[in-house]
Design a protein that fits this description.
Blueprint lengths: L1 H7 L33 H6 L14 E4 L1 H8 L25 E4 L4 E4 L18 H8 L4 E6 L6 H14 L4 E5 H4 L11 H20 L3 E5 L5 H10 L5 E7 L2 H7 L4 H6 L21 E4 L8 H14 L6
Parallel strand pairs: 4-6, 4-7, 5-6, 7-8
Antiparallel strand pairs: 1-2, 2-3
Helix pairs in contact: 5-11, 7-8
Length: 318
């Protein structure tokens, strides 16, 4: 009868926890289980809550686009919160940054190229250096930075110069402004801060090409003198050659190969260099090419002028 009673009695529902008395040497007693009802006492509940027992993970920060990026993606203006935020942005306001924000309970960290570099990184030297690569290529790495108004002939000169160096057996690579905005800099617009970031990135890339021993030909409007000088400072050995295509606004607007001046005059493009945004001409460029009184120099003549300079300065041989 007793066995039958035990067989007919309902089994207790398992809780998933072992009693403290039966816990083995490798098993820890569980004081509270989510399947068991909590006691009503206030003191013990706090100590035995899921958070205090390590059963719940802390909520991770949410990842969201910074307001400037979100506005470009959605096309809608973003209202900025007025409450103070702690930023890792070199002391500048979040309005000056484009990037990603990590949002916690009481802080926003803006991530962009202007965030100070980490303190726990170290430069790693390789056994093959710039001098070794230059001996292999029988040339010296440098940056030929071509600047001027839109329509002044920068891209034409860059490609002609690249072809001329190629026929002479010299390795060169052209970095063109529009081309890089299809990839590396496609997240940047034409506001002043975006233009500065555009040139900063290009300067770092050009420095790597020069370190590889190539003649890097950079073709950019680069309207601000400060940004160009920052790129020059990256190459402290005199291997930054600034080429200024000094063509008048009237000539460039008459050419207007992309139709951009017409759009700017019609008010369809804002912040266009030479129309409603300034161009700061170089003060001490290595090469200045002017349009001439009667006829503008041909692309081959301009390229030859740059090649002659590179030869005289020893960049086209060891």
């Amino acid at each position: 009868m007793e066995a039958a009673a035990r067989a007919g009695a309902p089994r207790p529902r398992p809780t998933g926890c072992l009693p403290a008395s039966t816990a083995g040497p490798q098993q820890h007693a569980c004081r509270w289980c989510p399947r068991e009802p909590r006691s009503s006492s206030s003191g013990g509940d706090r100590a035995q809550s899921p958070a205090n027992l390590g059963l719940l993970r802390p909520r991770a920060p949410r990842l969201r686009l910074a307001p400037s990026s979100a506005a470009r993606i959605t096309g809608q203006p973003i209202r900025r919160a007025r409450d103070p935020r702690v930023e890792c942005a070199g002391g500048r306001s979040s309005a000056d940054h484009v990037g990603v924000s990590l949002v916690g309970e009481d802080r926003v960290v803006e991530m962009s190229s202007t965030v100070p570099k980490s303190s726990n990184i170290f430069w790693h030297d390789c056994p093959v250096g710039k001098t070794d690569r230059q001996k292999l290529l029988k040339q010296k790495g440098c940056v030929v930075w071509i600047t001027g108004l839109s329509g002044s002939g920068k891209s034409t000169l860059a490609c002609t110069l690249g072809r001329e160096l190629h026929t002479r057996g010299k390795l060169a690579y052209v970095l063109d402004g529009d081309n890089l905005r299809h990839g590396l800099n496609k997240d940047l617009g034409f506001a002043a801060e975006d233009r500065a970031e555009n040139i900063r990135r290009v300067g770092e890339v050009a420095k790597l090409f020069a370190d590889a021993g190539l003649v890097c030909i950079a073709s950019f409007i680069s309207p601000y003198r400060r940004d160009r000088e920052s790129c020059r400072a990256l190459l402290s050995d005199g291997s930054f050659i600034e080429v200024f295509l000094n063509m008048s606004l009237e000539l460039c607007e008459a050419r207007d190969p992309k139709g951009l001046y017409k759009l700017a005059r019609a008010g369809k493009i804002k912040g266009f260099t030479g129309i409603d945004d300034p161009y700061e001409a170089p003060l001490n460029c290595e090469i200045e090419i002017k349009e001439g009184d009667v006829v503008c120099p041909s692309p081959s003549d301009m390229a030859e002028q740059v090649v002659t300079y590179l030869e005289e300065k020893g960049f086209l041989h060891e």
